[in-house]
Amino acid sequence: MRIVFPISNYRANPFECNNIYICMVPGEGRLMMYQTGLYEFFEEALKNLADCILFLDHKTQVIFMNEAAQNILGDLYGRVFEEVLPQSRSKDLMVQDFVPIAKNVSIGKRQFILYERKISSHVRSGVVVILRHSLNSLVGDISKKKEMLIKSSSFIPRYSFAEISSNNSDYLEAIRIATKVAKTNAGVLILGESGTGKEVFAQAIHYESKRNDGPFIGLNCSAIPKELFEAELFGYEEGAFTGARKNGKLGYFEMANGGTLFLDEIGEIPIEMQAKLLRVIQEREITRVGSSKASRIDFRLIAATNIDLYQSVIEGKFRSDLYYRLHVVRICIPPLRSRMDDLPSLIENLLKRVNERNELNICGVSGDAMEKIVQYDWPGNIRQLENVLEQAAILCDGEFLTALDIRVENITGFLGHLETESKSTMEELERQAILNSLEQAQGSKIEAAKKLGISRATIYNKIRKYGINYRR
């Protein structure tokens, strides 16, 4: 049994994250992690972090330590963590759910900040522990590229079809197709606007498949620089290029061996890389950069896009043979604006997530707030709805969100009502809105994306599209 814990916004608080997913294996512990190949993934993702990271099983015994933890604490495998660090509340966490505050602790002459959080699955629970140097508020000595790659990977799926429900006929049809294709090894192409939950479907397909004991590896293709695509997808050998890691590096296909590789925004793959990707899909073997030896791999590929991929084929931006190879089974996820009947249950689930993330106790939305939500067209879909609800929940003075708390005046919503305007006018408005948001966010693209209710990948694409070069 594997337990998943999300870590996001790592710089500010390691437990406020959405994008780094760590798993642990209670019971069999380290041995099972070796048998399934997960231990190598942990070491790959965590060995360069300066923070000490430990995983405790349901008895609060240590079952995993990264290199930093071993160097500072020694070998604690099998030991009860509170015996090593009495300030820990790991045993209390196993008895009742609460969010312990970060606390300062001393280990020898060193000062650390202790973070702990309970993580649970349907049958097992455990605790993840992070010890951060008091003077080190960043993620150790790690390059921006490495950080981006770690954030783009998740090893174990968080969703199954049991957690996906709807009253919308188109959405139910998408679930029906996904459920049937999950039992096969067929390739899947998921289509949908940004924020509709394409990765949720990809994870559910993996969870319901015969490959669910293997890893689920997710990669957003728009986040990889063009010149790094081959090395990141296929891996590289030691000395393959200047700056290459001493012992080489696993590629994403190798990491997904025995499991599922999810390539989001597949349309962003450079045209010169598409032939190599097609060959890997057809031959089921990869050759690392700097090597002449081909290695067999066993994987399932799920791709997703928010653009008209066939139009890209017509325009010569995407290979037709790759398109048809990916297009074995197509799943179309409808936008939120066509799922208004699902809003009450969606809002309930999203508010639970918002409450947990921010330690709030918002009970729901008022009638006038619901009316305002229903009238909006939500061009940013579920992701935008969650952002708006989170902002409202944080600023709300009561237990229920009112219409005054729901603020949806942003560029995507505004543009959605400008159907009569020319394309050039709309693009200029969009460009100006992005510039305004960057100004308000002091140049932070992530914060600007949040203000606009769009994904980080989308704002990067828009910045490239409009040639925006913002410098504060």
UniProtKB/TrEMBL annotation:
This is AAA family ATPase. The keyword Cell membrane does not apply. CDD domains: AAA (cd00009). Residues 164-394 form the Sigma-54 factor interaction domain. SMART domains: AAA. One of its GO terms (molecular function) is sequence-specific DNA binding. Pfam families: AAA_lid_14 (PF25601), HTH_8 (PF02954), Sigma54_activat (PF00158). It comes from Brevibacillus nitrificans. Gene3D superfamilies: 1.10.8.60, Homeodomain-like, P-loop containing nucleotide triphosphate hydrolases, PAS domain. GO terms for biological process: regulation of DNA-templated transcription. Keywords: ATP-binding, DNA-binding, Nucleotide-binding, Transcription, Transcription regulation. It comes from the Bacteria.
